[in-house]
Design a protein that fits this description.
The chain contains 7 helices and 11 strands. It is α/β, with parallel strands linked by helices and 234 residues long.
């Protein structure tokens, strides 16, 4: 079985319509309804978890094609091969989605935002996007400015339900920045700046409210993003 994918995206990227095109193909023979279900699951875990600038457009598309040229056949979602195919298509979509973020307009850093300890998956996802779409967070990332207050502010303004500040912990990669609502005792600005200077940054937030978690991928907001969009006219 072979799976191939290609995607296009650069700016105006965020779910609920983004300027994005993605095409996935497999040579497996798959029932149409099963293929639809596979794509819906894959998109939810990949293209619906990315953000470049928080802006959206009126046109995007993600299509999947099954040519039926291989000997592999899947006719229902209970087929033993279903899980393997889903995992493989998920992996292709996630790789393409992350590539869109890396290719974001003016992007210099790839940022993973992982929210764990949430009361629900929707709460985690909303907070992740509040951080990912914050211009202050994104510009701090570009400048390698360890202003963790911007992350806390983005969490605080979220409408994702009850949040208890004394339970929140924040990490930059493996560096603990905030521990249960207070600046971590061992944290220094020098250490924070070192982590934020890296081309790949993981912002980890533990809400301390439950067992749910979600991850969103985004990028920084640079001078080049302003320049590209200030000079661009449709």
């Amino acid at each position: 079985m072979t799976i191939t994918g290609i995607a296009k995206g650069s700016g105006m990227i965020k779910p609920d319509m983004a300027t994005m095109l993605a095409f996935i193909a497999t040579d497996a023979k798959i029932d149409r309804q099963v293929l639809d279900e596979i794509l819906k699951r894959a998109v939810e875990r990949s293209f619906n978890r990315i953000c470049v600038d928080g802006d959206t457009s009126t046109n995007d598309a993600c299509l999947i094609i099954a040519t039926g040229k291989s000997a592999i056949q899947i006719s229902n979602i209970d087929d033993p091969l279903m899980a393997r195919l889903q995992e493989s298509i998920d992996a292709v979509c996630i790789e393409l989605a992350r590539a869109i973020v890396r290719d974001g307009e003016g992007a210099t850093k790839f940022i993973s935002i992982n929210i764990q300890g949430g009361a629900s998956e929707s709460q985690c996802l909303e907070i992740a996007y509040d951080i990912a779409t914050s211009p202050l967070v994104k510009t701090a990332m570009f400048a390698a400015d360890p202003n963790w207050g911007r992350i806390i502010a983005a969490i605080g303004r979220s409408r994702a339900g009850l949040i208890e500040s004394e339970r929140i912990s924040v990490f930059m990669n493996e560096l603990c920045v905030v521990d249960k609502g207070e600046k971590a005792l061992a944290y220094t600005e020098e250490a924070g700046q070192l982590e934020m200077s890296k081309p790949e940054i993981k912002i980890g937030v533990d809400l301390g409210l439950g067992q749910c978690n979600e991850t969103v991928w985004t990028c920084d907001l640079s001078h080049d993003y302003i320049k590209i969009n200030a000079e661009y006219r449709s």
